[in-house]
Amino acid sequence: xxxxxxxxxxxDESAGWPAVAPESLxxxxxxxxxxxxxxxxxxxxLAGAALTRMRRLPPGVAVHSLRTFLLADARARIEGxxxxxxxxxxxxxxxxxxxxxxxxxxxxxxxxxxxxLLDRFLAGQQVGTARRGALTxxxxxxxxxxxxxxxxxxxxxxxxxxxxxxxxxGERLAPGDRRRLAALAPTPWFAVSFSARVAACGLRRALPAxxxxxx
Length: 215
What we know:
Elements (H helix, E strand, L loop, with lengths): L29 H4 L2 H4 L5 H10 L4 H21 L5 H10 L14 H16 L4 H12 L12 H15 L9 H8 L5 H11 L10 H4 L1
């Protein structure tokens, strides 16, 4: 991809989902939805569908998902990285969805379950196979300690945003953004409750192997 050019959309414009009305979304989201990176996407069918689905998440997880996207976008803008913006918003909306509910997680742990839910959603929105693959990989691998060497921009950015929001790692790459977003939409003790959810899912037994490790 060329820096400064956003990845083209592929298919979701024909899904028939109406533009989301910002006022219909939870009040605690509003300060984040007003940030330009999110406000610019609110009329996009895929963004509207993803945000509507995200209302099913616990409030703290949903706010974390929005902050994850904004932190990822901040780094992309700083570095001039081109990426699938609306696709990454959908990935961020689903990246922790596997932590919710009582469905058996299977070998992939909660990231694998989250990736399955995202793939099902994207397929329903008529998103093409290659694009779905890049976005579901981003979700499936976001809990790795570091991105795989062959990871694409969406996987790298989602990984960065999720880890920065929860742990503060990588803050020098987007200085001040984590603090500003946390002030706009605070989630006290989120890191503690999130860690407890992850521990309950037995994540350490389910981290996906990198593509290079499998070869």
